[in-house]
Design brief:
Layout (H helix, E strand, L loop, with lengths): L5 H11 L5 E8 L2 E8 L15 E2 L4 H15 L23 H5 L19 H7 L17 H15 L2 H10 L7 E3 L9 E5 L4 E4 L5 H5 L9 E3 L1 H15 L8 H8 L14 E2 L16 E5 L3 E6 L4 E7 L11 H18 L8
């Protein structure tokens, strides 16, 4: 134990403290990668977690799918961020909102609404029926992180690409040859557990944690992806390369537009991305101010630091067995500081299984 890698040691200490039962990590610095995995799929079985099992990455879907799809479309001038939703979805209460305001969480839309509590299957019809509840602040004084805004972006995606799966396949998965990133549901044996649900008398495995996404069929613009750390890393690497101007998938100009604060006066949100706030960032204190990333509620995150030419993918199941455990808020900045200090202290890395 005395010679145990300090990152592995820290991850195991958190697992043994029941912050999460499982983890997969991918760290990459100047092209040199390190990765770790461990724990068990759930607390009732002793199935060990390797690097092939899938984690529910929650709202990271907003960046992996929606942010990436819109960035590609902007890059080839298929659409403009200043366009209003009305161009694609006319005659609605939200027609006047711009794509920019939706992607940057500056639209004034409500943060969340209980779509899953209704038998209505059409999102557009449901939004029309609940139009009185859509806006929390039509003229927001600060950004309000909104799933509802991404539901509307999902409708725009459907108008342009036909459906969200097709958009993801066309703009992201196929051009990047991504493996280990897919929409659910997935076979239980291929996924780690998330929350224990009384109505099922079991923990979710392979079924999306987000109730609204599940009600949408498991494929949505705000949540729904399952992934391995290596799969997310393949995607994150292309965003880092885009910021550095070394990929044809996305131009450096568009990548910078999407990963800088979109409305600095209102908050730190970029377009489909978050950026590093001055205080209290989940990326800790060592990632540079130019860093950008996104969290997933089930216990996942990705942070990319172009100044260090590095990124860190962290997948855990911190909502297992209950979402009420929020110790991940303490774990995240500590872990990011630990990994970044390793990058700062070493010019050469190694690969760990």
């Amino acid at each position: 134990m005395a010679n145990q890698d300090p990152i592995q040691k820290f991850l195991e200490s958190q697992r043994l403290a029941f912050v999460f039962s499982a983890y997969q990590i991918w760290a990459e610095h100047r092209g040199v990668s390190e990765h770790w995995s461990g724990g068990v799929t759930d607390y009732w079985n002793n199935e060990k977690v390797g690097d092939k099992l899938l984690f529910d990455i929650g709202s990271m879907t907003k960046a992996v799918v929606t942010g990436s799809v819109f960035a590609r479309a902007v890059d080839r001038k298929q659409l403009d961020l200043g366009e209003t939703v009305g161009k694609y979805l006319p005659g609605t209460r939200y027609s006047g909102l711009t794509l920019h305001s939706l992607l940057s969480h500056s639209s004034g839309l409500a943060a969340w609404l209980p779509f899953h509590q209704t038998p209505m299957t059409s999102m557009s019809a449901w939004l029309a029926h609940n139009s009185a509840h859509l806006f929390s602040a039509p003229k927001p004084s600060k950004s309000v992180y909104s799933d509802v805004g991404f539901w509307i972006l999902g409708l725009v995606i459907e108008k342009i690409w036909g459906d969200i799966q097709t958009a993801f396949d066309t703009e992201v998965k196929k051009p990047l040859a991504l493996r280990g990133v897919q929409f659910g549901p997935v076979t239980a044996a291929k996924a780690v557990a998330t929350e224990f649900r009384e109505e099922r008398r079991a923990a979710l495995r392979g079924i999306v944690f987000d109730e609204n996404c599940e009600a949408m069929g498991g494929t949505a613009a705000h949540a729904g992806l399952f992934a391995t750390a290596s799969g997310v890393a393949s995607w994150a690497r292309h965003w880092l390369d885009a910021r550095k101007g070394r990929t044809q998938w996305l131009s450096a100009k568009t990548a910078e537009i999407f990963t800088k604060p979109a409305v600095p006066a209102l908050g730190s949100w970029g377009l489909g991305w978050d950026t590093k706030s001055k205080t209290g960032s989940s990326a800790g204190s060592r990632f540079s101010p130019n860093s950008f990333g996104h969290l997933g509620y089930p216990g996942t995150s990705v942070w990319i630091d172009p100044d260090s030419d590095a990124f860190l993918v962290t997948l855990t199941n911190r909502v297992h067995p209950s979402r009420l455990d929020e110790r991940v808020r303490v774990f995240r900045p500590q872990f990011h500081d630990l990994v970044h200090s390793r990058w700062e202290g070493s010019k050469n890395g190694a690969s760990h299984g």
